[in-house]
Amino acid sequence: MSEAARIARAVPPLGLLGVAFFYPLSLIALRALHGDGGTPTLSHFTALAHSALFANAVLHTVGIALLASAGCLLLGFALALALAFVPLPGAVFAMRLIDTYIALPTFLLTLAFTFIYGSAGFINGGLMREFALTSPPLHFLYSIWGVVLAEVTAYTPFVLRPLLAAFEQFDVAQIDVASSLGARPWRIVRSVIAPAALPALMVGGSLCLLLTVNEFGIVLFIGAKGVVTLPLLVYSKAILEGDYSGACAAAVANIALSLALYALYNRALARFGSGHAGLG
Predict the structure, then answer these.
(1) Is the pTM of this model over 0.85?
(2) What tens digit of pLDDT does each residue of 78-112 get?
(3) Do 201 and 161 meet the contact criterion of CB atoms below 8 Å apart?
(4) Which helix (H) or strand (E) holds 280?
(5) Taking residues 241-257, what's their average pLDDT?
(6) Cβ contact 201:163 at 8 Å
(7) How far, in Å, are 2, 47, 51, 70, 231 from residue 245 at the CA level?
């Protein structure tokens, strides 16, 4: 096939990609630069950069993403160890059940959490009945820790699946050799299993970081007091305040952060191998 024919075949899908993806993004960038139709200006970005709300949103976004990703790595690694190396009854069913979290909208998970940990949830209700309390003793759900807990629960499968795929290729004989040499279980995990799991942990952790930075439904649904992330800031400025130029400027900042993290994810994927990144 000639070079001209290849270019001609590439034009329609590239045009469709441009219309469906790049054109809406360009509209956001233009609105942030032009405001309501004036000359290009950086005033909206300058105002955003000097806003305490924006600074708090960036700190909350990055802080929650780091905490949630660390939680996903710890929980995912523990679950993968149990499912891959411990002869548990119903392990296959447990894996399938955990997989279903990938298909569920995150706000549904948050709704379920309100029935468990919320002020009127059955844990608070049980504690109030048991100890004759007049108010719910647990309030963490409506704080930054409630957001982190919900995100860890929602995104741990994105770490678990690559780990299980890596452990399927793991030579179990290495564990037998280490045991015969007197290594205890914790040392086997640290010195034998963990190095083999590192590529999957890097890929899964990078993906979780990217997903949690852009998480909107959990933060909005929990409504944690004083917790505003970049996606929530975009929503607040556009829908609640009607400041579409400011919302677009915040969206550009959110997109820049997302693209940086996506580059990190691709770098981890390229370095450690796509064979560990599958979710199926």
Answers:
(1) no
(2) 999 988 888 777 777 877 777 777 777 888 888 88
(3) no
(4) none
(5) 89
(6) yes
(7) 46, 11, 14, 34, 15
> Which of 103, 104, 122 is closest to 113 using CA atoms?
122
Q: Which of 273, 222, 247 is nearest to 113 (CA)?
A: 222
> Contact, 43 vs 33, CB < 8 A?
no
Report the C-alpha gap between 200 and 167 in whole angstroms. Answer: 9
| Phi, psi for 90 (deg, rounded to 5) | 80, 20
245-262 b/e (C-beta count within 10 Å ≥ 16 → b): bbbbbbbbbbeebbeebe
Can you read off the two tokens belonging to residue 146? 């409630």
Asked if 25 contacts 255 with a C-beta cutoff of 8 angstroms, the reply is yes
Q: Positive or negative, the Cα torsion across 102, 105, 110, 111?
A: negative
Check: CB of residue 246 under 8 Å from CB of residue 111: no
Q: Is residue 234 a contact partner of residue 53, using CB atoms and an 8 Å limit?
A: no
Alpha helices in 86-193, H assignment, sequence order = 91-103, 106-117, 122-131, 144-155, 157-168, 173-180, 185-188
**Per-residue pLDDT reduced to its tens digit, 30-51:** 888 877 666 777 888 888 888 8
Contact 167, 80 (CB under 8 A): yes
